[in-house]
Amino acid sequence: MAAPAWSQDHAQHGGHAPPAPSPKVEQPVQPIPALTDADRAAAFPELGHSMQHASDFNHYLLVDRLEAVDLDHGSGQAWELQGWLGGDVNRLWLRSEGERARGHTESADVELLYGHSVSPWWDVVTGVKHDFKPGDSQSWAALGVQGMAPYKFEIEATAYLGEGGRSAASFEVEYDVLLTNRLILQPLLEAEVYGKDDARRGIGSGLSTVEAGLRLRYEFTRKFAPYIGVSHERAFGDTADFRRQDGEDSRDTRWVAGVRFWF
Fold this sequence. Notes:
CATH class: Mainly Beta
Number of helices: 3
């Protein structure tokens, strides 16, 4: 009996089944047209223009704190602001902060700094700082870094060198906790260190003061937000001794209310 045809073909191919026929590829009825610039502009209107900035020179001013302070005897005010002029890499920075209590300015300073970007999130700054209060005014040379650390902690760390070999350093860190898209809780920690005693200004060497604050703001817009909060400051070492000699407490807790805005 003759072997079936499929068996003969199987033998001719060395015991392997014949290959399956290739599937038929259907061609589109109409070819896909080439993508044009007009198609890209229609799909992504914002990409229809140059990706460069409108100007190489920009500006920004943030009044981070402008607040009324509830003191043990009377009331006071406090402010902290920073701003810059320039481009993405080189900027001229302005920083200032101060406090008033019972109608008198207790502390006030202003810093004018040149900042150079060393990474997408960090600037190195150098310039001058001038203290108006407390005591007689004095100037300092300044060098520091500022920027955003991992997990979005905003940090400023600056060292100062003044007349007569005086030295100082300040460190500030703050963080925004988004409770909702508009309700934001901002913890803040600030510390100051000095190299020498300065009895005229009530400042002792070493760790001088540490301030911790907690402020809750509501952003009606991204540019304007009122807030309430609490701030606690503690003096250490000789600074605490100087305050006690002047009849002041080395610790102070205050309720605050103010606004934060930028433009």
